[in-house]
Design brief:
38% of the residues lie in helices and 16% in strands. The chain has 328 residues and is an alpha/beta fold. Strands 3-4-5-8-9-10-11-12 form an eight-stranded parallel sheet. Helix 1 packs across helix 2 and helix 7 crosses helix 8.
Length: 328
């Protein structure tokens, strides 16, 4: 497994990471045994960049990850997040960036994860009621205290990234990025590169649609949030599946799966960029890791981008209320 460097604070991570959210929420029933086996298999394959958040579950995903990495902490580059405040019953409170909340969340995450430090601690969403400098001042205190190694921010607008970075160096910006979500190319990726900040791409498989596993007849489970997302509904879904069919043809010509093609495209976007495809099953993890050996020619990249240029996917990637909390 090759490594990539995020930011200028010395954080090196596996070229591909593992997003763990789906092990506890949003994508149907959980399977803790298979999820832990998936994390163990990831570590065996050299996928050591493990991503979670306090809100996933809520709280249960950090505990699951903690159980999975127990005894193997020195193999893991561990990332978690704060800022989306939820109750134990899963109900939503709001985005919280108050300094006292930052400190409390970090201590709680350390306890749930069973570790003495977090390698990369993200502000998960930006609290518009609290100056980002105040939030990041508290985060910088966590670094000084040795509880956190590096800091990141998720779904932040370029001006916010600049303000955070002026308070304490930003190691990584995490934002959704895939063939179906290319808007970071407009301003977020350029500002990251200007400031020497790494970029972590979540949902690089378009929440599963780029794998080819989603069909027009799909019936999402009640606890699968995609059923409420515009991109997965009606005419939007039909349009998007038409694009996937074309990408699948390109993948067949390359001798790989459409998921591997989509990941290879993200991986080719720059050495400062690391995708963290999420899965809770070993077989999909292994398929994703195999994408690391796929090299795309300039002609193949051109063919892929002709099918899926910026803005090609129909429908928003989140519901309206969730869209209001991205690129803030």
């Amino acid at each position: 497994m090759q490594q990539r460097r995020l930011g200028s604070q010395g954080l090196e991570v596996s070229t591909e990471g593992l997003g763990c959210m789906g092990m506890s929420q949003s994508y149907g029933p959980a399977d803790e045994v298979e999820s832990i086996a998936t994390i163990h298999r990831a570590l065996d394959l050299g996928v050591t960049f493990i991503d979670t958040a306090d809100m996933y579950g809520p709280f249960t995903n950090e505990r699951l990850v903690g159980r999975a990495i127990a005894g193997r902490r020195d193999e893991v580059v561990l990332a978690t997040k704060f800022g989306n405040e939820r109750r134990e019953d899963g109900s939503w409170i709001g985005v919280n960036g108050r300094p006292e909340y930052v400190r409390r969340c970090c201590d709680a995450s350390l306890e749930r994860l069973g570790v003495d430090h977090i390698d990369l601690y993200y502000q998960h969403r930006v609290d518009t009621s609290v100056p980002v400098e105040e939030t990041w001042g508290a985060m910088a205190e966590l670094v000084a205290a040795g509880k956190v190694r590096c800091l990141g921010i998720s779904e932040a607008a370029p001006a916010t990234i600049r303000r955070a970075h002026a308070t304490h160096p930003v190691t990584a910006v995490q934002t959704e990025y895939s063939l179906f979500t290319r808007d970071p190319e407009e301003a977020v990726l350029p500002v990251c590169r200007e400031l020497g900040i790494g970029f972590v791409a979540y949902s690089p498989l378009g929440r599963g649609v780029l794998t080819g596993a989603v069909t027009s007849a799909v019936e999402f489970a009640a606890d699968d949030f995609r059923g409420r997302t515009p991109r997965f509904q009606g005419e939007n879904l039909a349009h998007n599946l038409g694009l996937v069919a074309q990408l699948t043809e390109v993948a067949a010509g390359k001798g790989c799966t459409p998921a591997q093609l989509a990941l290879a495209w993200v991986l080719a976007r720059g050495e400062d960029l690391v995708p963290i495809p999420g899965t809770k099953r070993r077989r999909y993890l292994e398929e994703n890791v195999a994408a690391l050996s796929i090299e795309l020619t300039s002609e193949e990249v051109a063919a892929i981008e002709a099918i899926a240029p910026p803005g090609a996917a129909a429908g928003d990637r989140y519901t309206a209320d969730q869209m209001a909390r991205v690129n803030v």
